[in-house]
Amino acid sequence: MAVSGSVLKSRPLNISYEIPITKTLKFWEGLKEGKVYATKCKNCGALYFPPSSDCSKCLSSDMEWTELKGEGKIETFTHVIVRPATFSDEPPYTVAIASLEDGVRVLAWLTGIRKSEVKIGMRVKLVAKVTDEGRLTYELKPI
Amino acid sequence: MKKVAVIGVGHAKFGERNDVNVAELAFEAIKPAFKDAGITPKEVGFAAFGTVGVWYEEPLPAVVIAEYTGLTGAGLVRCEAACASGSAAVFSAYSAIVSGYTDIAIAVGVEKMREVDTLTAVELIGRAGYYLWEFENFGMTFPAYYALHATAHMEKYGTTEEDLALVAVKNHKYGALNPYAHFQREISVEDVLSSRIIAWPLKLYDCCPISDGAAAVVLASEEKVKELKIDTPIWVKGVGISSDTANLSKRESYVGLTASVKASRKAYERAKIKPEDIDVATVHDCFTIAEIMAYEDLGFCRKGEGAKMIREGETEIGGRIPVNIDGGLKAKGHPIGATGVSMIVELTRQLREEITPRSRQVSMKNYIALAHNVGGTGHYCYVTVLGR
Questions:
Q1: What are phi and psi of B70, to 5 degrees?
Q2: Contact residues, chain B, for A86 at CB < 8 Å
Q3: How many contacts, defined by CB atoms under 8 Å, are there between A and B?
Q4: B276 assigned to some structural domain
């Protein structure tokens, strides 16, 4: 099926983007303090997670920070067995989408539970995390 | 509004094509499309190229392919709508004619995904959602995005892993009859169920392959169709396009794709048809669950009854609406920029009733066909209705 051919190996190119987080700095700083922040539009009241510094509903840029309580339940999940190249050092992980009582949904890793025990509808809490490598992130944990 | 017809189609062999570079692969589809239409490249006013790139070396594929195929001088554009890039190119070419800019346009879909290793390809596709919020920390993959939908659909409607497997079995059955398909062999439900898990509950045989491939369609205005004395023009009856949020966490539900619902309703309205008028359809089965959701989202059945359609054989040849009779993305392969154009090639040939082998030809009642092409996980959706 595969047609075999000869190949020329191109020049390698390694790219890492420098993603500006100036406008969401409080969110990233908050993760270090164990807090997960969302933003709220002062004009129309829309709540944003992931945090947004501009409102897509009314186009206002007058936003305020609000800490999420972070409790909710699993809407759906998957166990990622075949991982992307840059995640190949990680063991297989579970990704879940939870709907929080705060009024937003969150996609994140679900940790602290055996894969076979994960169920739709189970209660979880969103928690901030700093990884061993220093990456700022957040996870869902069963409660 | 101006009428636009497909007057020429061409299709390269899909698969692992490490025997050709991107321009050579596109040539394999473009040359037969010109021959089929009975025109030369110099008669083309506008050429749209559906290709996502990044896994092959050329950053400006439109100009490279245009030079290689004699299209230099025509208006060029490269279209990106993730896995619906091919349909975006078809729409761009269609628009160039509808607007009166030109009377002949070509849409080319091409992808070379096998010039990088598999896990790098998994990475590049996984990044295609919202990189910052769903990949950077969570390493989402494309199978994982659809697995989130499979889990939700199974929970809500009782869809089973066996139901998903039936989609793969059907599409491999027809892929075995399609000489352009990446996989040309039949598989069993047991093969699917025993294949290794990629992103639970999706297994290897629930997933389309990572493919190389190209397809091309030549479009023309009604005046040009008459002038060229095209004997079987296939008319673009209507196109519907929609989209959804980049973040999956902002979706209302995970049991369907809202963009598919919206795009199909717009297409039905423009083409003045109902789902029951469709003789044959190609739907976006990048994963088996995607085909089941497509039946529901496109209105082929009620919400939650997609699994019943596959169980009862309603989407096989002879069934109520034959779907993915070319093998679908699942068996034909999914070179992502080529897929949308490949769908139009297949449906044009079905509507012209020229499919070989004849066992793969669908019998026509209304001469209406539908192509449903999703980009990302319902991020983009293009629905194109064709008629003879």
A1: 80, 20
A2: 123, 139
A3: 121
A4: no
